[in-house]
Batch of 4 targets.
Target 1
Amino acid sequence: MQRCPQGHYYDPTRYSRCPACGIPDLAVQPTQGYSDAPAAPDLAKTQGRDQPARAGAGDGRTVGLLRKRTGLDPVVGWLVCIAGPDRGRDYRIHSERNFLGRDPSMDLCLSGDDTISRDKHAILSFNPETQRFKILPGDSRGITYCNGEEVDGPRELHSHDVLRLGQTQLLFIPLCDDRFHWD
């Protein structure tokens, strides 16, 4: 079991992010646990990336542009593992910068592949002003590839591009583009 930043416990082999958080205002309800799953502690007052921003929170944390406008940080696309130890798993991409690595503190935690750097193997960004996605190399030793080519600087991503980090291949699926975006 893994603990999300909001304090919920979940099985990272079954879920790419904490299913207990859900996405308010998008009619995506929290995932219901199985009867044999251990009960998660009741931490209803916690707040995470997919939860509404508290009015006047004033806790000094930086708030992304899309979250500031919509009151939440909705999904803008996905990465789906098509080859490697986590084959079949999906990872939600959020607005602005998403850090990829093995460490649970990463926005996109690719924990099953020990050939991926723990911290900031790569950065996937979504610009809410231009509705464009980019992949950038991280601050680690590992190399990131896009469609078989080394990513050595910012590179724009397009639907169905294939990223490779270590032994893992990830298919890029955008939600937001010129046809749809969160207001």
Target 2
Amino acid sequence: MSGAPARQASVGAGLPLATYFSGPKIKWILDHIEGARARAERGELLFGNIDTWVIWNLTDGPDGGVHVTDVSNASRTLLMNLETLDWDADILEIMGIPRRMLPAIRASSEKYGTATGALTGVPVAGDLGDQQAALFGQTCFSPGEAKNTYGTGCFMLLNTGTAPVPSKNGLLTTLAYKIGNEQAVYALEGSIAITGALVQWLRDNLGLIQKSADVEALAQTVDDNGGIYFVPAFSGLYAPYWKDNARGAIVGLTRYVNKGHIARAALEATAYQTREVLDAMNKDSGVSLTALKVDGGMVQDELLMQFQADVLGVPVIRPTVAETTSLGAAYAAGLAVGFWERVDDLRANWGKDKEWVPRMNAARREKLYAGWKKAVTRTFDWVE
């Protein structure tokens, strides 16, 4: 974790100033690798994230490859202006990055070129960042629709419509997608560092379970968390706190607590952290979430998904296709080549596998959540 502050580097970029993003990395290379800056200024050294590199090679690389990226990937470099959808001249000047080394910024759904080699003749037509592709694959095309991807960490994105929403609550403002010549669509993103990784920690560090899937059965051996909360700030806290001096804690321990309670508290930590990010999104956007679409490895955990719905107070929906990132990229390409004509066709293609509805009453929900918020404060400023 870079210790990224909630303060944004510029309204134009929508991101905190952090070495996590590509821009500072490019600057370091140009400043420290002998001859790199001169070659970049001559147009002999090009930059691209992995999407740019893949498209470049698919379209014949140094023998005529297309050097492009899309708005969603460009928005995560700390170099693109969110409103102009172009490289920000002021930021490039501050970082000393020659514009000519950067790829052209294109829509997320359009034909960039034609593949060569084994794929000769196949159009290359869809380009989306990881989490933006998951949002697109979940067909969150309307403002207020959101998805959460549960993996080692969690990434929640909320569609905020055709205007960027600056965050005052520790979130990232980002491009969601752009379809052809249509207006760009923006999103707020909240990143949670430790979710599935906490289950892995229970398995590898404590030996409480043999495999990650066993955590649900262990958590079901108890009726509740036994009064404990597990805040997994192993390397600090991400959104909405951005505190790199926080450290993990289990609070509320008594002699009554057993390994089942610890397993349950570990699962509940994911749901509570998601609630915190959602609250920040509601404050920034002024839009109240009506349902949360979910994907990723942890969505197979029935106990977690039910508790997530209970803590949020809204339905949680799992799609029939769990690999929504790949699906979103396929949707974008399919729109570009005419396989689908409209985004409404994509909504019709999306299917619901299961839905969890809230069962917990509001008073209990808020009491449990207040306990979580109190527990989180105990992790602040541990590293001096």
Target 3
Amino acid sequence: MSPLPWLVSGIAAALVALGAAWFVRARRRTGVFESIEIDELPADLKKRLPVSLHPVIDPNKCMGSGACVASCPEGKILALHDGYAHLVNPEACIGHGACARECPVGAISLVFGTVERGVEIPHVTPSFETNVKGVYIAGELGGMGLIRNAVAQGVQAMEHIARRARSKNPEVLDVIIVGAGPAGLAAGLFAHERGLRYAVIDQEANIGGTIAHYPRNKIILTGTFELPGWGRIKQRELSKEELITIWKEAVERVGLVVRFGERYEDISRNGDEIVVRTSRGVLRAQHVLLAIGRRGTPRKLEAPGEELSKVAYSLSEADAWAGGKLLVVGGGDSALEAAMTLAEVPGTEVTLSYRGDTFFRAKPKNQKRFAEAVEAGRVRALVSSEVVSIAAGEVVLRQGDAEIRVQNDQVFVLIGGILPTGLLSQAGITMERKFGTR
């Protein structure tokens, strides 16, 4: 066999490699891609890796093209160092996967969890059905944090449900949708449009799920997506208020009925039917879609006085607390953002108590803004402190050996939620622990 074809192939490969190298050098010279020094890589990077869907980079494949850096709409999550891409701001990633799609050599994979920090994810089929026939899971509970993905999953699960035979018993619904966040609302709108017999329940008083608890004017990266009953949402990012307004208008336009203030408690199977017990009674259906997110039930302090009406587990209307003496408990993004939002309201005195000594779980941007607020005297930060007791006019904190009494009108406990994995396990749904799994 003539060596000519092999020679031609070798020359072509060399030209491609030279072209790629020239491209990378040219892009770096023009400053298109951010390049960092090794000492700029975060020292606590392993601590900060998210447990939800995020990218990992194979250095044996990476050619340093910078396509991943340029494609990320969230910005500065990836950066180049010494000719390779590095994950430098992982907690800002919400798993849209643009970097993996744009990598020309397939050096990026999207994974759940990390080797150090695993995450429990329900096992579902491509149609989002669990091992319990007729029970589906979509959205954040399945490890997808991006709103666009949650909406798509809710619709895809409902498409699968709509193709199945419907019950002839008028007392048995076609589907019960638990949760009125992105996945649940999209699923409900789809079900209403297709004429399914449905019920949408949510333990909150308003639509939006976890997003409804975000601070005022928080910008949310959504990506473009198609919302049943509304059409295509073209903006890639929206404020909390803009997004909830769109959802409310879509609900009103379609006529979707949501049963607010109804908490999901238990699920079981009775023959061909699925029985859902709620705080208001019992519902029966052929299918159930769980779109309850990972926030679950708010985690409590278990401190004396926590039962007082002055204690809240979310912040929605900060303006209502003008002139108030306010305590925020927690050290994550929600707590820092709430403290900074409250500090902007005229006349407030804001204190933040956190049992840790650093805010490493919060995004760097929030850490920086919060440090500036503390330095400017807008927020008082008490790190390494714990709430001892709560009374009508004050809160008692312990910081080391010292006891601190803080005059107080309202307490916001923002220390995360208890994941609903117990409810899923009781229902017989198989959970998988992912340790950096594709």
Target 4
Amino acid sequence: MIERIAIQNFKSLKTLDLKLGRLNLFIGTNASGKSNFFDALRVLQGIGYGFTIHEILDGKPKSAASEVWEPIRGGSAKATFTGAADADDISFHVWGRLAGDAGQEWEYLVCFSARDGRLRQEWLSAGRIIYDSEPAGNAAEDPAFHVRFHGGRKIWQPHLGLEKSRPVLGHLARGGNGKWSKGHAELAQRITHDLANMQRIDPSPIFLRGYSQAQTIQRMGERGENFAALIRAICADEKAKKAYVSWLKELRPAEVEDVGTLQGAVGEPLFMLKEGGQEFPAPVLSDGTLRFAAITAAFFQPDMPGILTIEEVENGIHASRLRLLVEMLRNRAKAGQTQIMATTHSPIVLAWLKKEEYATTFFCKRDETTGESHICSLPKVPHFEDTVQKQPISDLFAEGWLEDAL
């Protein structure tokens, strides 16, 4: 779980420092910076995969070791905040807690040049510093990137020369260097796994209505690819199916009796709902029903991600069912397995939030003069706490009060 993140000079995020929770909502107009924050999360995911800086920003073709990695929107040419004092300096500072019972805290900073695709600074700490590049200098013309590794003794080891285009965290996670201790390599492996273990969900009815190419899967695709194959996997687990169907029953005006898949000519699965004794295949279901069914299914995947991002979570869902959507997000976040990041344009979604959830609901606004995105939690919006006691939060958002206040 990412507990706090500070970003400098990435896209429209000139200076950003957010404390995150299990459920995080991002609100604001189009082009206010919400998607840029989600792009920042993808940079961290690419670091978790061990990619080079250029691969993270500009994309990577499929290989024997990895799937296709789509480029960050705009690529390396648009990665740096326009007008930054140091055009080569993008930094990510992350405070996290490892998944699992131990929940060890860690802190990581990486600075890089998007233009040159090279590291500028990097360090990792988990209770105490593990490695640090700052004392090593690292001039632009140096053929390697040097770090000092602390091997558990009171003195620093000599500088290590590493690939300057690939974050050190990935080197440490791969091990194979006699300078790394086994314990530190294992820690890095867990951190990179948590960073890489993100899933973006933006289901499209075009994919949800079709047959799946796979028979059964552990996770569906970003756009809902192999949705029916995921439903087949969920239905194979009686407990998961029961919980999944219970949410769908709340969505539909008619009683949902069952959920499952139909088979095509060669056994390929197709999603279906059963109501009133009749089977309704995916092609006859509404966009809203399919999208809600897919988003809900994402929370019952056999292989759950550590971080799940959902853009415009209310898309295609009727206003009368948005309360259920908020309740589901809240319920699955409390389960503690997955950290949720979602954007919304809906005042109704905000209307169903609890007061304690305002701290991880973030308002985004873009400065028209400088192009900088300002993102802050609702309690930090000037006069918000006093004003929301007099007027519903949904009205404050719909009427533009938040934009005027920030």
